[in-house]
Give the backbone structure.
Amino acid sequence: MNNSTLSNFEIHVSTERTHLSQVRRAFTKSLEFENTDPGLVNFFVVCSNYLEFALNRLIAQDYILHDLLLPHIKNDNTDYQDKLKSLHKGLKAMESSIEKLGEAKNELVKSGLYGIDPFKNEAHEFLDVFLNLLASNRHSTYDLEKKVFTSQDWEKIAGVSEESIKNEQLLYQDIKLSAPEGCDPESFPPIGHHAKPE
């Protein structure tokens, strides 16, 4: 990885988070469409591909964050101990949910239009977990992170590589190219770092 990539890892993480939020909202909107065609099935598939990739990266980042933060929290600090337990629980739930979405996507690929309803059901359950568990845990330890983490820690947490950048760009481009009307992810404005998910 070259020096410019290393120095810009924060920009890449910010871009990933913005794209994840935009894809999630475009995906949510597309699930509301009543008339289904092969193009919409394809959009469900490419959105699922992106969500699997992006959330697996996010989960990996948060596990590293959890492990790096743990030594800085005393055993009697029940507030932060509880926050870390909550984060860990949310990550496990998210892992399970993204795995189920992947299985539903694979079934949709096999069955096509006949598999729309089961896929939509699983997609809605996935989105509930995403919003209620993971989103609610974001940044609950932010004040401590700012105090104890070094730039090297943040770089380790980010896990940005030339491969991760390339894969993210390709998956996002797939969504832009296949988006039905009203579902271009770039049409959804970025949500602020601490803003409540829509």
Remarks:
- Residues 1-6, 193-197 have pLDDT under 50 and may be disordered.
- DSSP finds eight helices and no strands in the chain.
- Residues 103 and 181 are 27 Å apart (CA to CA).
